Amino acid sequence: MRTRQILCPTDFSETASHALRYAIEMANFYHVGLRIVHVIEQPVGVDNYQMLVVTPAELAQSMEDSAAENMKTLLKELNSELSVESVIRHGSAAEQILKEAEVSEAGMIVIASHGRTGLAHFLHTNVAESVANRAECPVLVVK
């Protein structure tokens, strides 16, 4: 952990920004790099409605462009002397975060938890929980 970069997934939410501050603090403390990853979930198209305004490919491209712009803004706001890399992946958030951690040989993952409970927790997949349970490196879950 002390010599390998920290991976910090983001969905550009306020909660993710909070987790990013922890990741930056830890990266500064250990003098390691920071890798920020954003995962774009694949859009699901329904052909039966025949009212598609955009195709799934156009929607995916729009999501990619938006993510790239958000990532640029985030990197400008960091104003840090850390070595910072950014990555945009496509697919299931938990799966792609785990793959990125493996490929980049991350020493730690710092991830935000949106703190859902009750029915909301049941209805939405908990990415942070899935990553924490399956990661091969330490995971810090930030609320």
Automatic annotation (TrEMBL):
<dbReference type="InterPro" id="IPR014729">
    <property type="entry name" value="Rossmann-like_a/b/a_fold"/>
</dbReference>
<protein>
    <submittedName>
        <fullName>Universal stress protein</fullName>
    </submittedName>
</protein>
<comment type="similarity">
    <text>Belongs to the universal stress protein A family.</text>
</comment>
<dbReference type="Pfam" id="PF00582">
    <property type="entry name" value="Usp"/>
</dbReference>
<dbReference type="InterPro" id="IPR006015">
    <property type="entry name" value="Universal_stress_UspA"/>
</dbReference>
<feature type="domain" description="UspA">
    <location>
        <begin position="4"/>
        <end position="143"/>
    </location>
</feature>
<dbReference type="InterPro" id="IPR006016">
    <property type="entry name" value="UspA"/>
</dbReference>
